Amino acid sequence: MGYDLNITRAKYTFESKENRITLKEWESYITIDPDLELQEEVSQTLPNGQVLSMKSEGMASWNYNGNPVMLVYSDGHIRVRFHPFGEEPEYISKLKSIANKLHARLLGDEQEEY
């Protein structure tokens, strides 16, 4: 089971629908952030040759030190998988910066604020 970080305007992530970041706001932000790229579909070929794809409106990718990080818009907030390199200050700083520019907060799965 993974751990996510969430960019939200709500007090708790599960309340994001009531105090939402709109898809339009998020997509506008993606266009001005040179580190992000709108990528509404990602695919990966599995060892058995099958292709696994994911489509999501408002999905963005961020190349963090050669590692792809996906930011997924859902229900008024942006979800980011907490990667093993997530303890690195630059990783958290970038996500906090995005949250600040969207007038939002960065919360973990336990609702702790970063």
UniProtKB/TrEMBL annotation:
Protein name, entry field: Uncharacterized protein
Protein species of origin: Paenibacillus baimaensis
Lineage, top ranks: Bacteria, Bacillati, Bacillota, Bacilli, Bacillales
